[in-house]
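[Automated response] Your request has been received and processed.

Submitted sequence:
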Amino acid sequence: MANLATFKDWLAKHNGGFHPHVRFVEELMFNEVKISKVPSGSAVVADADLPADIAIVECPFDLVITEELAQKCLLEILDLRNELENKTWTERQWISSYLCAHWIVEGSRHLLHDAYLNTLPSAEKLRTPLHFTALELELFQGTNLYGATLDREKEWRAEWNQCKSAFSRQNADWGDKFSWSGNYPSTYLSSRAFPSSLLSPKPTLLSSPNTKPILLPGIDALNHGRKEPVTWAVSYPPTNSTSESEGSTQTPSPKISLVLHNPSQKGQELLNNYGAKPNSELILGYGFALPQNPDDTMVLKIGGLHQKWEIGRAAKGAEGLWNEILRSVQQDPEETTYEDQLDAASALLDMLKALLDRFPPDRDERRVSMRPEVSLMLDYYLEGQKEIVDSLADFAREKERIAIEQARAEGIEVVLED
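Generated structure:
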């Protein structure tokens, strides 16, 4: 907890900080009884009853980790002019390399975020799939998440190799210290980053082609609460205002604040809201899942086509997929017959059966070797995926029923074979 105290002092020194009646804890309590250990290492709780609509934490723009800040600082210690001029590195590579440099390059005055990085969970505490054991990942085999994890590892390893080469080129010892470890700096970015649109005068989580990932020290300390009512507020200092810092006078930086709109009781965990996200995204990017997550989705693709369809619970979004399957079986593109609809329903049901057959079995004796929190993620994830498949099957059967009614209206009795 000493690192957290240092971090709070560092944030306050730069005109940011936490509300005086909040604190960090490693274990959550209820009526003075421990109810759980915080998987990520720490949580933010109320140290007294707090009213609604109160700012919990403020971060000055000066401390925000952006691609531009990472580039500026890294160019002071590494020759990365080629990477900068030719734009061969992604935002993730610049920011992840900047984070890594704090642990590799000792004593550099150009690395500004030691106090922040010392509060982040160690690689051993991260639970995204790149930090699963080989067995844990294998038990996700047959799901979209398994393939997404392999794709992410391939992409991140290629980026990591480029960054490691740049550090090795400057200093062989630095290159040796640039370890993979599931590329945990990139995991920090995937699990803690916000879109740069939050720094606009009207902050929003909605991304656009121009938004980039940024890290907001302090703002990112709160865990996720689905539908938690929060606001990100940006404030600008009055014109001509100044502040004293280490004997010098400077213009204060704008700040971003996290405002919680619900009142909180003493000891209650204070939560941010990362937005509506399916468990696939929460597991892959953050390392946790929600039970019966209403925002769960499944991405489906028809062989031979590049387009993908994201289907939610209750078959939300299924019409686009259905129309594509229907087009693929139609004899006459100008006319849809009941036979076309029956063929499309049958094709969709066959697709869903194949999906279910590939899913991990409900019972697998190897599950006892999984860490409990990873096993729980698998349960939550599979529950959502299977519910979506079931709802799609109901959707297909309803289309089948409508086709049979159409046939009867044409004087044709349809008998379906099992």
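Summary generated for your ticket: Residues 30-36 have pLDDT under 50 and may be disordered. The chain has 13 helices and 16 strands.
If you did not submit this request, please reply to this message.
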